[in-house]
Design a protein that fits this description.
heterodimer, A: about 400 residues, Rossmann fold, 2 domains, 6-stranded parallel β-sheet, 13 strands, B: about 525 residues, Spore Coat Polysaccharide Biosynthesis Protein SpsA, Chain A, 10-stranded mixed β-sheet, 12 strands
């Protein structure tokens, strides 16, 4: 089987770059794969040495020569997916939908580039006159279109022979907007490099052994409920003066938390690391006592950070929405994004801080679950089985 | 019995005039004299009178003198001890003159008597005596709009009676004079006349048995710019003739200012603006009527001039500002000079109003007393100069001064007339622009709807097209993948065939060799 594979690769700062580079060697056991990228030099030597990598503009020529059995598109919400989006419309294939809500992405490649008509057209494609009306009113100074209410993934869905998603939640949403669409769920795989011990990690990161470390991982944005976590942590700290809260990842401008930290009296107790490499990222995972990765509203995404945290055997507190809600209840703690969200979060933090045994048990169960259900081998098998299924249905 | 003359004022009201005159001639107490004063009608009214009512004395004015001027002509010709004045659009009941005469004979102090005036339906009251409300002198009619159910059937004294139908004792004319013709073309001349008569000791009464039907065919439309302009200008004249400065400042101004905040039609706003301006311009030349109390009448002093100018100017500006700010302007401080000019150009007084305010403040030249600031002997020097002036130059200078004032007044009136014409032209232009804007609005609306529909249709087509393109792309892709698969299968088959051929080749060569041996 020959697959034309479209995905950002490192050094493009997208989680999907890592995702693809981890998955590709396993996929290559089942198929011959050519990679198609944008205007940059891939940085991962193993990938460069193991695969044929082409600029996406060469696809037409190569497609005639190599007669690919299927095009595979890794579609996400960042600008690095623009050529993938356009290519997927020209040459439909199997699309891996990492985000159900693509509104941010489509708004960026249309409105962000001054192409208002393009945006109106996208809204029209997906929602008819209601969509064009909403877009035109927004441009006339009216209300902004609600991105989560109008996900704008419809054209991608229509342009796919089949869709791979990472959660039943997104599969259900797709069935609601496009009933009968061929969709399969392939769990997002766990990828862990060698994880140091907690003591080693703390020593290397300059954290004290007696500190109670609470941490959140990944990009820092309003949807990660950081303000709420800070308020809960401020209350938690009163009983636990040795506690610190780490935000491991980069702030997404224009979001800033400095004022909130100062107002809550958390100066010196909260640290933002900024973007760190994967080894440091995992060291922070190893060093933390409790991880909190909330998300609301959800764009239907799956969190690689949460999977890594669970795979590391750390107790994780997540929001009870979307994909997160599908995780087994004995593997993590879930907070409803409802009225008493802050109180529930605080209670969980207190519980975990007071029960080391519970932390260990939660982490062990989580790791066992992830190892069983989120393996790279399983993911690759899921991809290949689905592509074969699609191909068999073409005849 | 007193003889009663009837004066009917006619102006382009041929359609009403005949009924009016017939009703007058059908009186149970016939008129001693019937005078028709025509204010230069152009609709054939005078001809109608001459042909059909030869018993009427027809007086034709060469121009429209307005109500006061026209009626004054008739009043001067009237020979009766009583004189009834009627508008052309009235129809009087047959006992009208008898009832009016009886009222006057009941009480010699009655100077003016008014009628119960009903609308043409005969049951709705239009007038049962009038009242002028202090301090704005806004007029009101008792019973206006009510059904006549006898509620106003008592004869009584009132503030004034409307000039549409009234009777006056001729003696009043000797004591207080005629209608003030400056109340041109109409409005308030009747109120002014009644007030003057009462000030002279006469009673003004409403006579309910004297009934008149009124078509109210005003020559000025009720909400027209000209109506409001004339009505309010005459109201201001009425006020300035009666109020002293304190009343103006403390009573009239605050009430008027508050009243101006209420929403009103554009015509009334424009009419009001014009009325303030004209009064501001012409009030120094107003002939003073007798004030109710001599000591309360305004003297012609600089302070009063300044005070009145400030009030009128402030009201005018307030209305201008209100037009731009919907009445949110701060009230100006009286006696503190004209307000500082506002920075916003929109709030600047118009060129016309500035011109008029400027002229109003300066055109009336006056002699000034001699003043000397020399210590001790200053008053003596001033006195000597005053004396010298009075014996040598005063009479000469006065004549020049008067001539100059007359010239100035004529100039101011000419400016005023030009502003009038300008106003009318602007009004006409305004109407045209307004209509054009309306039409444009309608067209834009229609175009908007069409564009909107076309856009929707275009959107639907584009969406359908995009969806079709997507579906087509998917089908093409499917076919492409199938072809690739077939080609790959064919290629694989070809490779297999080539392999089979290759595998068969040595065996075939050996077989041929054995065949050759066998045949040999």
């Amino acid at each position: 089987m020959r697959i034309a594979y479209f995905s950002p690769l490192n050094p493009m700062p997208s989680g999907i770059s890592d995702y693809s580079e981890e998955l590709l060697p396993y996929l290559a056991r089942h198929a011959q794969i050519d990679l198609f990228i944008d205007d940059y030099e891939p940085s991962n030597r193993e990938i460069v040495d193991s695969f044929s990598i082409f600029h996406h503009q060469e696809f037409e020529r190569l497609a005639r020569e190599r007669r690919y059995d299927m095009c595979l598109y890794q579609m996400g919400n960042s600008p690095y997916h623009e050529y993938i989006y356009r290519q997927s419309l020209r040459h439909p294939g199997v699309t891996v939908l990492h985000d159900y809500v693509l509104h941010h992405f489509l708004e960026f490649i249309t409105v962000g580039r001054g192409d208002l008509i393009g945006y109106i057209r996208e809204m029209g494609y997906a929602y008819g006159l209601e969509g064009t009306g909403l877009a035109r009113r927004m441009f006339a100074g009216g209300e902004r279109v609600q991105r989560y209410q109008y996900p704008l993934c419809e054209r991608v869905v229509d342009s796919s022979l089949g869709l791979i998603v990472h959660s039943d939640y997104v599969a259900r949403l797709l069935d609601e907007i496009r009933p009968g669409t061929k969709v399969t769920k392939v769990n997002q795989h766990l990828s862990l490099r060698k994880v140091p011990s907690s003591a080693t990690a703390r020593a290397s990161l300059g954290l004290g052994g007696d500190q109670f470390v609470v941490a959140s991982f990944g990009l820092i944005a309003p949807g990660k409920r950081i303000d709420l976590i800070l308020r809960a942590f401020a209350r938690f700290k009163k009983k636990h003066p040795n506690a610190i809260y780490l935000l491991v990842g980069a702030l997404v401008p224009p979001y800033q938390i400095e004022d909130g930290v100062h107002e809550l009296g958390l100066d010196g107790r909260v640290k933002v690391t900024g973007h760190v490499d994967m080894d440091t990222f995992q060291a922070y995972m190893a060093a933390c006592d409790v991880a909190i990765n909330l998300r609301f509203p959800t764009a239907g995404e799956t969190s690689a950070s949460v999977i890594r945290l669970m795979g590391t055997g750390k107790p994780v507190i997540v929001s009870n929405v979307g994909w997160y809600a599908e995780l087994p209840d004995d593997c993590c703690l879930k907070v409803d994004p409802a009225e008493r969200e802050e109180e529930t979060l605080l209670a969980y933090m207190e519980f975990l801080a007071a029960n080391e045994g519970a932390r260990q048990e939660l982490g062990t169960t989580a790791r066992a679950y992830i190892e069983k259900n989120h393996s790279l081998v399983g993911s690759a098998q899921g991809y290949i089985a689905f592509i074969r299924d699609i191909l068999s249905n073409l005849a | 019995m007193n003889r009663i003359s009837v004066v009917v004022l006619s102006y382009n009201g041929k359609g009403y005039l005949e009924d009016c005159l017939r009703s007058v001639l059908a009186q149970s107490h016939p008129p001693y004299q019937l005078i028709v004063v025509d204010n230069a009608s152009s609709d054939g009214s005078p001809e109608l009178v001459r042909e059909r009512f030869p018993q009427a004395e027809l007086i034709r004015n060469h121009r429209n003198l307005g109500y006061a001027g026209g009626m004054n002509v008739g009043l001067r010709e009237a020979r009766g001890e009583l004189i009834a004045l009627l508008n052309q659009d009235t129809v009087v009941q047959e006992n009208l003159l008898a009832e009016l005469t009886r009222a006057f004979e009941m009480d010699v102090k009655i100077g003016i008597a008014g009628c119960k005036i009903l609308l043409a339906d005969g049951v709705t009251i239009q007038h049962a005596g009038g009242i002028i409300r202090y301090p704005q002198a806004l007029p009101d009619h008792y019973g206006y709009g009510q059904l006549d159910e006898g509620q106003y059937d008592q004869m009584r004294e009132v503030d004034y009676v409307t000039g549409a139908a009234l009777a006056v004792r001729k003696a009043v004319l000797k004591d207080v004079g005629y209608f003030d013709e400056a109340f041109f073309p109409a409005y308030y001349e009747d109120a002014d006349f009644c007030f003057r008569a009462r000030e002279a000791g006469y009673k003004i009464v409403y006579v309910p048995r004297a009934v008149v039907l009124h078509h109210e065919s005003s020559t000025l439309g009720r909400d027209s710019y000209n109506y409001h302009r004339a009505m309010h200008r005459n109201r201001l004249r009425f006020i300035l003739k009666r109020y002293n400065l304190r009343q103006l400042q403390e009573d009239f101004y605050p009430a008027e200012k508050e009243w101006l905040r209420a929403p009103r039609s554009e015509n009334e706003r424009r009419g009001l603006r014009r009325a303030y301006l004209e009064t501001l311009l012409l009030w120094p030349s107003m002939p003073w009527a007798k004030a109710e109390k001599e000591e309360e009448r305004m003297a012609d002093t600089d302070e009063e001039r300044l005070g009145v100018r400030e009030i009128l100017g402030a009201l005018h500006r307030s209305l201008l500002e209100g037009d731009h700010q919907h009445g949110s302007a701060e009230p100006p401080t009286l006696h503190k000079g004209v307000q500082e000019a506002k920075t916003d150009d929109l709030l600047q007084p118009s060129f016309g109003s500035q011109l008029v305010e400027g002229l109003a403040s300066k055109w009336h030249a006056q002699e000034r007393p001699f003043v000397s600031h020399k210590p001790l002997i200053g008053p003596l020097i001033a006195f000597i100069r005053e004396m010298w002036n009075s014996v040598s130059t005063k009479w000469f200078v006065r004549a020049i001064l008067q001539q100059q004032n007359e010239f100035n007044e004529a100039l101011v009136r000419a400016v005023s007339r030009s502003l009038d014409e300008l106003d009318i032209r602007i009004g006409a232009l305004d109407t045209r622009v307004s209509r054009s804007l309306d039409e444009l609005d309608i067209r834009i609306g229609a175009l908007d709807t069409r564009v909107s529909r076309s856009l929707d249709e275009l959107d639907i087509r584009i969406c359908d097209n995009d969806r079709d393109s997507t579906a087509l792309a998917v089908e093409i892709a499917k076919v492409g993948y199938r072809l690739n698969r077939i080609e790959n299968q064919l290629a694989a088959l070809g490779e297999r065939l080539a392999g089979i051929e290759q595998a068969l080749k040595p065996r075939g060569s050996a077989s041929n060799e054995s065949n050759r041996i066998e045949s040999s």
